[in-house]
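Dear H.,

Thanks for agreeing to be a second pair of eyes. The structure we're designing against is below in token form, covering all 305 positions.
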């Protein structure tokens, strides 16, 4: 394999900062979801982010642009925030933060697949090989959880098959991310990142508002859960999505999606240090296969003939 020779990358510092921030989102979401539940956690995350970003957007004078393109931007919010955040919040009830982050690394695979099918960005042989390798890595990683049942004392079907559904939820989330990247590239090219970030959080908030009320927890969550959600909303969502849409503008959607290559490194570190989560050789091996496949599928690596 050989990596393509590139020029200087002015977007690299923001790329690494975004990876570190999003890596921490799994930790803080885990702290919140055990008390709030999946849908309220996701809804509050995007609502806090929207409240943080909206004054900044208005101060920058971007209100007219948001009003003009609100339908497209709100749809991006559902695809890029609302559905994925709910899926990952649910998954973190059954999976470790590190495993969830490794599954999140399949985003570029789905991004390349969607770009191929929708934008007719036809991959060469090397990228097709990458798609095959990447999805094989996902299958190997998921095989450790598919069909995994909880102990016989668990009373409900959801408790018994939670890990299997959690893996499926992670993959649904990554598919939505891939769809969102291509949609943004096609319909929101040139849009200021603050407009896309703010509008997407507003759209996600509207989409999740009713489900959050229906599934609001019966017992009031504690201070730690609220602080975790505040951090996830402001830093891991509000600030992070401004960085993300800036990356789409400066580095392109496929390269921006590859930030998920680095996110698992930070997530595994945070989970091990703060939650005492175990990092298994199987997780590392499957993660390496997935990263190899995604590197090939996005063109970061080229297979020699």
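And this is the sequence the design step returned. I haven't edited it by hand at all.
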């Amino acid at each position: 394999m050989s990596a393509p020779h590139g020029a200087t990358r002015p977007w690299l510092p923001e790329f690494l900062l975004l990876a570190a921030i999003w890596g921490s989102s799994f930790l803080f979401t885990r702290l919140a979801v055990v008390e709030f539940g999946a849908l309220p956690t996701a809804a509050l995350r995007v609502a806090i982010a929207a409240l943080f970003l909206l004054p900044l957007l208005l101060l920058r004078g971007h209100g007219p642009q948001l009003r003009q393109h609100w339908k497209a931007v709100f749809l991006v919010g559902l695809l890029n925030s609302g559905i994925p955040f709910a899926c990952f919040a649910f998954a973190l009830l059954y999976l470790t933060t590190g495993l969830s982050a490794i599954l999140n690394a399949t985003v570029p695979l789905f991004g390349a697949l969607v770009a191929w099918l929708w934008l007719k960005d036809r991959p060469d042989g090397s990228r097709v090989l990458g798609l095959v390798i990447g999805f094989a890595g996902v299958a190997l990683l998921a095989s450790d959880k598919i069909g995994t049942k909880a102990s016989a004392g668990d009373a409900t079907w959801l408790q018994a098959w939670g890990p299997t559904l959690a893996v499926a939820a992670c993959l649904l989330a990554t598919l939505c991310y891939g769809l969102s990247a291509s949609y943004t590239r096609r319909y929101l090219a040139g849009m200021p990142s603050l407009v896309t970030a703010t509008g997407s959080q507003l759209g996600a908030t509207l989409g999740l508002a009713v489900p959050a009320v229906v599934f609001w927890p019966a017992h009031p969550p504690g201070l730690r859960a609220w602080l975790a959600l505040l951090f996830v909303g402001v830093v891991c969502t509000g600030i992070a999505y401004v960085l993300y849409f800036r990356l789409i503008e400066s580095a392109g959607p496929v390269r921006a999606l590859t930030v998920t290559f680095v996110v698992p490194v930070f997530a595994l570190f945070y989970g091990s240090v703060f939650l005492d989560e175990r990092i298994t050789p199987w997780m590392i091996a499957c993660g390496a296969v997935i990263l190899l496949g995604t590197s090939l599928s996005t063109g970061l690596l080229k297979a020699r003939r």
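Two observations from my side: Residues 12-108+158-275 form one domain. Residues 157-187 form the longest helix (31 residues).

Warmly,
E.
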